[in-house]
Design goal:
- The structure is a single chain.
- Strand 8, helix 7 and strand 9 form a beta-alpha-beta unit.
- The chain has two domains: 125 residues, Quinolinate phosphoribosyl transferase, N-terminal domain (Aldehyde Oxidoreductase, domain 3), CATH 3.90.1170; 145 residues, TIM Barrel.
- The protein has 276 residues and is an alpha/beta fold.
Length: 276
Amino acid sequence: MAELGVAEVRAALLEDGSAHDVTTALLQDNASRPARGVFLAEQRCVVAGLPLAGCVFRTLEPDARLDTHIREGEWANAGTPLASVSASAGALLAGERVALNFLQHLAGVATLTRAAVDAVRGTGAQITHTRKTTPGLRALERYAVKLGGGVDNRASLADAVLWKDNHWMLLERAGLSLADALRRAPPGVPVIVEVENEAQLEQALAARVRHILIDNQPPDRVRRWVERAGPDVTTQASGGITLQNVRAYAAAGVSLISMGALTHSAPAVSIRFEIT
């Protein structure tokens, strides 16, 4: 995990001006004294991002040490110590905000994901993310989704063919069929086709597409389209799915449910850092 976040940590520290902390400089020699800090959860959450916090302080001071008190992906109650950091006082002060930013955001993503996973438990549906991620933080947010119990989706435009509404529009203007376009798909690359009406669904099935994404449809229509697609086709629901309605979509029989809110709308978890 630390290797995954090194570039992101360096960029965040540079953004925060950690090498030029004019406030901590006022402490003079006191900033070089050994100190210890602890991260404390202020609300119940799924823990995510502790290795990044360690990476923050080791980037500032190679001898800094982070001792975790709970595992990544576990629930932590309010008041639970998550990890302790030993480093100079100056390093703790320079890195605390960046470390907290990572922890609070990633724990928020993991916590929201776990709530969605719990909401569909027993249905057979799995929760996944979308590409609606924070620029520069996609790999970290995907990591947090997995800690929350979600599964991977395509990470980038290069990972799979995902035929969407604007592709349909341009295809229709060109007077081509979906099958014509998909014949040019690179061998071995997964093909996913998003459908928003029955005509698109029929084209996808006629083109022998094996992964259909049903977008922006009510659960009863999703159920009918899942039955039409049959058991040999992976079906996925997306669009307007929330914690309040996610179980209805799972009960409609889809294999996957993608929720953009996991990454673009997860509320940050309240975590504080205390130097002792």
